[in-house]
Amino acid sequence: MSVLDNWSDWKNFLGDRLHQAQHEGMDGKVVSELAYQIGDYLSNQVEAKNDQEQVLADLWSVASPEEQHAIANMMVKLVNNNGTR
């Protein structure tokens, strides 16, 4: 089963990656830009596996680049308290 199949697993996976990046000293601006790039990639290349991902994909598809950055930043905030580390 892929981490994309379950919303909680996906948030925990992202939280783990975020904590790893922060532990290794990645700057918040770099994290934000990476989150934007990942969101753009997922929107264009990966089919939504659950309702939550579909909502994000739908929002991303109608958002301006500035709004997409805001969505990416909100996802970073959302997963900051997730993960196993």
* CATH class category label: Mainly Alpha
Order of helices and strands: HHHH
List low-confidence stretches: none
How much beta, percentage-wise? under 5%
Overall body shape: globular
Q: Mean of the pLDDT scores?
A: 87
Structure classification: mainly alpha
**Tally of separate domains:** 1
Number of strands: 0
Give a structural overview:
By secondary structure, the chain is mostly helical. It has one domain (3-79): Cytochrome Bc1 Complex, Chain D, domain 2 (Orthogonal Bundle). It is 73% helix and 0% strand. It has four helices and no strands. 7% of the residues are buried. Pfam families: DUF3243. This is DUF3243 domain-containing protein. It comes from Rossellomorea pakistanensis.
Give the SSE map.
Elements: H1 7-23, H2 28-45, H3 51-62, H4 65-79
Helix pairs in contact: 2-3, 2-4
Keywords:
DUF3243 domain-containing protein, globular, Cytochrome Bc1 Complex, Chain D, domain 2, 4 helices, Uncharacterised_YmfJ, YmfJ/YflH_sf, mainly alpha
Brief write-up:
The chain has 85 residues and is an all-alpha fold. It is built from 4 helices and no strands.
